[in-house]
Amino acid sequence: MAGLSFCGNNVTKNAYSVDTGMLNNGCFVDALNLVPHVFLLFITFPILFIGWGSQSSKVQIHHNTWLHFPGHNLRWILTFTLLFVHVCEIAEGIMDTNHLHLFMPAFMGFIAATTSVVYYHNIETSNFPKLLLALFIYWVLAFITKSIKLWKFAEYGVGVLHLRFCITALLVVLYGLLMAVEINVIRVRRYVFFANPQKVKPPEDLQDLGVRFLQPFVNLLSKATYWWMNPLIIGAHKRPIELKKIGKLPIAMRALTNYLKLKDAYEDQRKAPSIWRSMYRAFGRPILLSSTFRYLADLLGFAGPLCIYGIVEHLNKKPVPYFEVYFMSSNELLQNTSVLAVLLFLALVLQRTFLQASYYVTIETGINLRGALLIVMGVILLYYLLGTSALIGASVIVLLAPVQYLIATKLADTQKSTLDQSTERLKKTTEILKGIKLLKLYAWENIFCDSVEDTRGKELTSLRTFALYTSMSIFMNAAIPIAAVLVTFVSHALINKSKPSSSEAFAALALFHILVTPLFLLSTVVRFAVKAMVSLIPLYPVQVNGGFFTWGSNLSTLSDINICIPTGQLTMIVGQVGCGKSSLLLAMLGEMQTLSGKVYWSNKNRYSVGYATQKSWLLNATVEDNITFGSPFNKQRYKTVIDACSLQPDVDLLPFGDQTEIGERGINLSGGQRQRICVARALYQNTNIVFLDDPFSALDIHLSDHLMQEGILKFLQDDKRTVVLVTHKLQYLIHADWIIAMKDGSVLREGTLKDIQTHDVELYEHWKTLMNRQDQELEKVIFTSYSPTDRRSLTEEAGGWSYRRTEAKNQVDDDEEEEEEEEEEDDNMSTTTSRRSKIPWRVCWQYLSSGGFLMVFLMVFSKLLKHSVMVAIDYWLAEWTANGDVPVNGTANGDVPVNGTANALCLITSLTVEFLGLSAATNLHHNLLNKIIHAPIRFFDVTPLGQILNRFSADTNIIDQHIPPTLESLTRSTLLCLSAIGVIAFVTPSFLIALIPLAVSFYFIQKYFRVASKDLQDLDDSTQLPLLCHFSETAEGLTTIRAFRHESRFKQKMLELTDTNNTAYLFLSAANRWLEVRTDYLGAVIVLTAAVASIWSSGKSLPSSMVGLGLTYALTVTNYLNWVVRNLADLEVQMAAVKKVNSFLSTESENYEDTTQVPEDWPQHGEIKIQDLCVRYDPLLKPVLKHVNAYINPGQKVGICGRTGSGKSSLSLAFFNMVDVFEGRIIIDGIDICKLPLQTLRSRLSIILQDPVLFSGSIRFNLDPERTCTDDRLWEALEIAQLKNMVKALSGGLDAVVTEGGENFSVGQRQLFCLARAFVRKSSILIMDEATASIDMATENVLQKVVMTAFADRTVVTIAHRVHTILEADLVIVMKRGNILEMDKPETLLENEDGMFASFVRADM
């Protein structure tokens, strides 16, 4: 009988004989071993396939997630080990195909072990432990039968030298351990043999439907393969992943939990607590676990080269056929090529699983230690393969390591310098965008544009250096293994006078590839950035004794402060610009450094202070949220506050009323609206003390008076609250219970108005003259109440609140808009799916074409050439080791130039990619800057500042630094994979058959991953933005938050935002692991397929050297497959930056090209004719000026007044052609301004704006960026603006530093600089747009006189807040709703008592 039979077909001896006893028949013992497996399958299959439906109702746990029984992970590990040992047992048994009993029980054991784990998983899912009894019985039976077999082996003298004995012993141990695990479950859960079984509740997280991050709760297989992520990743194809889909974090992963864990670890240290020790105590276990996984993965990495060595070495040795039962040694098994192929596959799967597990728990630690271990192991194995020549080759790697280290340090330095230049460029760009209105009005765009381009030039130089070092680093990585292999083989040929065998050559090649990574890692330094949480304990004052305060230097800003703030009364702080009024408030709030003295508090008032800053600070939230600021909502109180601050008309105009979100730093509000919301916040809070820092500076007369009467005198005083008010409006002094007058950083005088009148007559008289009032007028206040219904609080600059708000809301990133449009056209799910999985080729092409076609051609050509040469070298190696006839030295010497070429190509290819990227980055930024800076002012009104800044910061950074390396990595990985598959297919064409299903699998994996990854990347970015915004917002408003005592609320919000961001980040990280596990397993299958195909083909005249070549290449595929997908997904996300930048490139520019000739001295006289002028901000909006007619004589002083929103500022912008003049015209000195080139028109007129804008640089640069004026002229302008003495006192004089936004000067001083700037430009027309709003009366009166004298012969148009500033004018124009209501001399207008101008003057008294 030649066929198969259970006990073999040996007819000479009776295989079924039991003469010497049943247990002495090996076949019977093996048959006995079948019993437990058959028992388990017989018991479990009916339960799994029939009875499970009835149990499912018992599932009490959400997500179908596992409630783990004790020893869960150990059970899975033991079961997997059991499966592996069964595979070895099957392999060993199959060697003798005629003895079925040698592998049949092992095969059944494999099926039973697999069934056991599926069965266990289902029991655990349904939390029905009684059914585990079947498994317990199975482990007991299996343990007994295997022990009998082992006992019989020992009896017959079969020992550890025989493989079958070792396998059986291992199985006994494994069954014993699994039995112990089962006993432990019975002991803990008491489900059998006990009267009252233990009831178990699922973990708290699993009872919460919101928790979707299941990695800590799923079983070990799902943990290792991220199987639980499948529904999310595959579902992303149908509809995008949203924030609610990823839910919230498990408790153990939340920011608060970890913060408390770290805090406790830190506080537990008695002596000298260290943050590093605390981190180790708090998170040491996962770090240790991660490192262990990593070491295991690295050690398994060496299995690849060793298996290749074994396969190539033993390829042509045929195994001896065994007709009897033969006990083979372990060594013989490991010489079987098929076994080695399977072992290689299993080693790769295990290595990759450990690697991904280590990434999940990792904080990259111990890299240096790991690297050292890998190098030592690698060198030992190389020496074992090739002897001394391997050490010579390895020495090349070691000798070149310092060069790698040097490159790494240079890279770090260059990166820092690039970051500095990038920050500087961004700072300049931000300043330009914030002051864009001023730049356009003064025609300075190009000067500032050039300044940004200069900084950009320096940044690009740094980027070029960075690109060079990056290329050198990539070149070293690619060139070192080539050089090491060359040196090794040449020295081997010279020392041993023989060539290495194919097996040695290819194992060495694979080892050299492994060695490069740790060496590169050794050269980089791991840096931790630990952010310390600073606890903030503010102090709140009522009394200051002997206070000397400073802003950080030793020079005191405030000197000798001795004041008391009376409880429940109104205290006013007055004084000239820059005398230290705001600083005094901040000193009392504990925000300044105290040099000496003390601030005292009464306990009752210590808790919270209502505070409205001079520079309004708003949250990125609704109007209501900004006012209530975390306090409970009280409708009556809220309405009273809204009315007191005259906010109702403004709120009515908002698209969503007080539920409208007000944007970053309140950019979609006018200055007055921002200020009133801040004041409303201070009023609404139920605090005993309220500090108001110049709340009237951005308000007109009516609003100021209303706020004073209704808000401060009525609302706050009725509540008997202590109010401290900083103001320039001296007419309100009569309401003060206590006055503090300041001068040059110290208190000049304090007391009631009567005290000052009695004791400091001079000061009192000075105040009286400032207010231009008689004594009796000071004592009685005329307050003209007015109806606010006709006030239109449209933000004039924006051409209307609602439009700006909705348009800003609509300015979603362009890709979203496109997606929405497409969805509307066809809501079909398949269309959406296909669109989401498409790669944005069009944008990629736009990017590449920005880099230049020559660079694209060079990149493609050099890449293809490099990979062809590298394949050629490895092919030569295979031929050389296989071909016995070629002389040893000849070929070795001939190969040096080829290797040199390959190394040079490595450098050239990475350089071409980097420089292609730089060229694209240069062009894109240049075009973007020019487009933005020449865009019409309307563009800046409807586009949020943050959105424009994002293009210059985040998006430019991605284009500069992220796309080139991603592109380089993508092309390299793709070409490496393609060349590997090409080589394998060339060596074993049969591999192509297996390639088709592998390619299909790969296609689907990458397709699903890219869509999900993009969604999760977007979620990560979008959740990071609120976190960063909240952080910067909190930092910016710290004084306000601490004054209100709201630290804990903001900290809580910070923790919540951190958790939200961490959830997105963890899912993104898990998705990356999901991909890598699958591509790694796919790579392992490719290696297995290649190995099996090689072994099958080896008999058909395939040289073993070619098998070695194919397998070495197959091994590289595993590493590079997931890089292809990751880089593809990254590139897709990064290309969105190019898309966003391109969307801004289509913005239309203002017309700067006109070449109309204008006389050099135009406008000479300053005559202005306004004829039937109609103006609007946008063709879609209503006109803001309607048929306005006016004539202004040369040299006339004209005042324009009107309520907020009457069109005053719009008229001033029309002079500069900044708005759409769609009808009528303005003629200045005989020339229609609409026909002039914008540059000419704007450079010949002067304007002073309401908001003072200063740029970082010097005082000289701020006054005269064009560098056309002499120093004398600049000093003259400063003298006129009352700043000469102050500037002289500064170090550097005209070259003294101005910080960003002019923050080192007070608001009033900044306004004076802006006046000086206008004086420097000696134009015959000056427009003052509410330019004196934020300065005190004394300075204002001086200025008015100066304007009258310095501009005596010029035309001055003043748009006035305070009507008394235009009483001296030659002509007054009163505007209402875009029309001229009254126009005449002020005296004439005052005669008409019912007129609007007269009512304004009365209200301003």
From TrEMBL:
| Gene Ontology biological process terms in this record | potassium ion transmembrane transport; response to ATP
- GO molecular-function term, one example from the UniProt record: sulfonylurea receptor activity
Entry-linked SMART domains? AAA
Q: What is its main location?
A: membrane
Q: Which residues cross the membrane?
A: 34-53, 74-94, 100-119, 131-148, 160-181, 295-313, 333-355, 367-385, 391-408, 466-494, 506-530, 843-861, 980-1005, 1081-1099, 1105-1125
| Residues of the ABC transmembrane type-1 domain | 369-531, 916-1132
**Subcellular localization, as worded in the UniProt entry:** Membrane
Please list where the region (Disordered) is annotated.
805-833
Q: Which CDD domains match?
A: ABC_6TM_SUR1_D2_like, ABCC_SUR2
What's the superkingdom here?
Eukaryota
| Keywords per UniProt | ATP-binding, Glycoprotein, Membrane, Nucleotide-binding, Receptor, Repeat, Transmembrane, Transmembrane helix, Transport
Q: Which family does it belong to?
A: Belongs to the ABC transporter superfamily. ABCC family. Conjugate transporter (TC 3.A.1.208) subfamily.
Q: What is this protein called?
A: ATP-binding cassette, sub-family C (CFTR/MRP), member 9
